Amino acid sequence: MTSLRTRGTLFLFAVPALILYGGFFLLPAVQGLRYATTDWDGYSSTFNDVGLSNLTDVVSDDDLFRNALTNNLKFLLAVVVGQTALALLLAVLLAARSRASTALRALFFLPTVLSSVSVAFIWKFVYDPNFGLANSLLGAVGLDRFQSAYLGDEATAILWVAVAQVWFHAGQMMVIYIAGINQIPPELYEAAKTDGAGRWQQFRHVTWPMVAPATALVIAYTTLQSFKAFDLILGLAGNPPRSGLDVLATRIYTTFANSQLGYAAAESVIFMIAIAAVTLLQNRAARMVHG
Amino acid sequence: MNRRDLLRLATGAGAASLLAACAGPGGSSSSDSAKSDDTLSFAHWRAEDKEVFEKIIAGYSAAKVRQDISPSNDYQSTALQKLRGGSVGDAFTAFRGAQFLDIAKAGVWADLTGQALVQKYEPALITAGAQDGKQLGVPYQLVFNTPLANTDLISKAGFGEAPKDWDGFLSLLDKLKSQGVTPFAWPGGDAANAGQLLNVMVVNNAPTDDALGKIETGENKVTDDWFLTVLKQYQQLVPYFQTGATGTSSDAALALFAQGKAGLLGTGSFQVAGVRKLGATFGIDLLAPITTTADKAKYEGVFNATFILGVNAKSGKQDAARAWIEHLSDPEVAGVYANGTSQHVTVKGVEYTNADLKALAPWLTKKTALAPRFQFSNLDVRGAVENATVQVAGGKSPEEAAEAAQKVIDQKK
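Predict the joint structure of the above. Result:
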């Protein structure tokens, strides 16, 4: 049995981590809350306390913030659905151990090791309306009517960035799914086959429920990635991004660059609440789907 | 010290830190005066000028100079915070407008008033570096934010000289289109460069020279007739822009022009060097759309005095930084910079040997307006106004785009 003295000593091992957590997360978070109640410009030695007016303005009287939130939610939905579905599909197809599947896994994983800036350069080339790969390919196969301005189309621009994001990270999520699929006991598939289940039914009644933990992990991770897709968006859209490509992280950065640090802090607080709300909803949805 | 004391100490330190975090923002920034590094930091955003500056640095023996270069948009966003620390940018540059004003408000410019180096500049061209009677910085570059024209294509279209009114301009674009080239390459997908066209679209339509600045103060609105005229003229330009103009990057528009596939490039003289770098050999001139009738046109184009050089008041190497700025202000050195980068400078007595600078020299005496786009000090307001022009180019009606922009301006001004 561990004595009280030993347990106390063990507690000390956590102190360095707690100091780092406190110094680099807790204190800035508290400072952010404090700044959110000021009109500080980020460099003056003086400021005014403005109470909660920054927060109420962000929520009720800021079309730019609302637009960024809408874009972010569109982006989140497109990436979570697209990336999860693609990663699962790739994992199911490549779960078997063979030389071909190992090579293909490596190929699909490759984009993950690139930097966001490199990915942005690649997709800028793909999406360029005049010299880009996408329009050139469509033109070459006679599908000119589907050619687009891509990132220049206000209504769909954020969805084209979502495509780049899915390409960037689907391989990483595929690896998580493959690990999940490889954990499923083969007997379950054998039993399903004995009961006459086809491939789809095996997937529906064996694979899908058994990869639930992996799915929860993939969705949670993808959600965070979607909220943090700052560098990819700046790389593709420039700084500051136009309204069709502005998301919460870039909006906060623009406000900061506009010498409104107090207001940017208030936007960050609402951003944090939005992430917490979305994560909570996802957890509940995951529990409902997987029991 | 026993374990209990250690825990008490940790709790106390934590509580003190939390209290400190709850304290207000502000306070003074640190200075770098104690830094032992003897290299002078020169902060700017023009990566394309790096080689020319290296050449100038190689011939400068008074100090070692290191270029700290950030991309222009990042520089706009983060330079002030870096400069306040004093570790970067003993000598530095700033954009005219919002950034210059913010840096002044933060007290980062060391006053250059009365310094000998100031006398080396054309007085009329360095007003953008002055505030409250003090010369805080010296604008170095003299650029023309006026579209570039491929003179070979313009001549083929039968235009010996630039059209004098809006109808004439549209007629030129029609002729270029009939020749199978893109009449007007415009980087609508690049926020920084898309907005350059606004300068020439506004100067002759605006009721006063400070009309854009008055949008920010609320005295003018983007729903006013004169600005709706600007937006309607953007709408008229849409058939002449390249395919997918709202999604075209600056590099792609530049390439289109440099390859001789576009008659005009809607940015400015600061891209001449980039065009030549891509191998273009055709003649280049500037050609501004005159947006009114000939008799009502006040200006032939737009210029800007920018790349404002200054000494960092937070630096411990102010004397060395001032000496470096003085070196750059020498007409011979400024000539190396100008001819190497294909940009005019504000320094007096510079000899331009670069063929493009010689060709554009007549613009130094033409009637041009100081670029109005930089009258905005609030980036959100500027973004809303410029976004309206891009939305119109993307198919939105001028009235709708103006209404949406005005709503944002009312919230942000």
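The CA atoms of residues 240 and 254 of chain A lie 6 Å apart.
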